[in-house]
């Protein structure tokens, strides 16, 4: 983001545990990722859903496979969570509060059926918690038609900016302008039933109970 | 996104006007973009704020200039607006409703001071409407320290998925499961004043009046 990140987590063995926790925090709070890949010499940035476990990010390979025969050599996957807008006294000091993770590596195809099911479950539960057990799970044909990529979380960086504006000590602070942070909240609205549903089909509990708003999922 | 986009706007002269309107709709609804760039052979995807007019996207060059001496040859900038989660009867048919724009091109440095001010105003007003006139505007030194890129909107594509799940006609529809769309809403929370502010500094009207939630800005 523009502006100076107040906190930047840098590489270093001594910070490995904190880094991993920060990375998993971003992956938990994020919803979609942006996959950067070079196809025939052209950079493409494609939004897609994801799932993860502590070591691996899983992506739907179908997203990019329209353009790619197999997994690409190297990708960068970025997950960004928007937490707020920083309103400073001066335009120059305006900024954005956010958490962002960049993961670099060479994705591999997930080919084993058991691993594919596990990866698809992680993706489904990240996007729509509770749906894996509620919806009909993939059959053999569907699983065969699903391409999944696995990307190690081993090479990743996290950047975070939080807090208020940085110009409280500047001459601008004497001018009486309001300054602070405007939090950004995201949440689920009222579920919209498929018009084809039989009248009276109940909204399942796990859907009805999803939070109306929560901070920083964008 | 995974799944089949229900609507895809393809290139073609006859659709140019509709495409441009769809592109501007995504840019208006989005908040941050993801800039894809190749730096020394490595793909990077960097989140950043943006502004735009009907012909041009403006970016803070500072974002990537830590890694780049000048504007890169070619970039892809993607703006994604999340509108909802599509809950189908089967896991396989789950999807995401979204609007996404991908803009390709070679960004140029904005060097003229008048153009820089105009571009910075577009970026500021996109992220924090009303702040350009409220906050102190950039002075000569700040403007010189601000690097801005301009990217033509001439080469862009838009993808949209909307509506409910696609398995209303499938055998799965007989199993009685609920299916539909879960809208995603984003909005601003209560403004958090900078702790350094004098007590009683009023929240300006343009900040207090920002919408609490609005559809599909994520």
Automatic annotation (TrEMBL), chains A, B:
<feature type="region of interest" description="Disordered">
    <location>
        <begin position="193"/>
        <end position="218"/>
    </location>
</feature>
<feature type="transmembrane region" description="Helical">
    <location>
        <begin position="21"/>
        <end position="46"/>
    </location>
</feature>
<keyword id="KW-0472">Membrane</keyword>
<dbReference type="InterPro" id="IPR024747">
    <property type="entry name" value="Pyridox_Oxase-rel"/>
</dbReference>
<keyword id="KW-0812">Transmembrane</keyword>
<protein>
    <recommendedName>
        <fullName>Flavin-nucleotide-binding protein</fullName>
    </recommendedName>
</protein>
<keyword id="KW-1133">Transmembrane helix</keyword>
<dbReference type="InterPro" id="IPR012349">
    <property type="entry name" value="Split_barrel_FMN-bd"/>
</dbReference>
<dbReference type="Pfam" id="PF12900">
    <property type="entry name" value="Pyridox_ox_2"/>
</dbReference>
């Amino acid at each position: 983001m523009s502006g100076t990140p107040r906190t930047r987590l840098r590489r270093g063995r001594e910070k490995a545990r904190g880094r991993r926790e920060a990375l998993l925090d971003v992956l938990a709070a994020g919803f979609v990722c942006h996959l950067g890949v070079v196809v025939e010499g052209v950079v493409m940035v494609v939004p897609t859903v994801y799932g993860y476990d502590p070591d691996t990010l899983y992506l739907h390979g179908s997203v990019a496979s329209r353009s790619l025969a197999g997994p690409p050599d190297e990708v960068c996957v970025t997950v960004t969570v928007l937490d707020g807008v920083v309103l400073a006294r001066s335009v120059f000091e305006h900024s954005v509060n956010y958490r962002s993770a960049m993961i670099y590596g060479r994705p591999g195809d997930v080919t084993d059926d058991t691993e594919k099911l596990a990866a698809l479950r992680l993706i489904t539960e990240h996007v729509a918690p509770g749906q894996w057990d509620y919806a009909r799970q993939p059959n053999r044909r569907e699983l065969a038609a699903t391409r999944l990529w696995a990307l190690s979380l081993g090479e990743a960086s996290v950047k975070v900016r939080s807090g208020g504006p940085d110009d409280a000590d500047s001459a601008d602070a004497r001018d009486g302008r309001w300054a602070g942070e405007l939090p950004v909240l995201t949440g689920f609205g009222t579920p919209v039933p498929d018009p084809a549903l039989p009248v009276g089909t109940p909204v399942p509990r796990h859907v009805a109970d999803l939070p109306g708003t929560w901070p920083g999922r964008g």
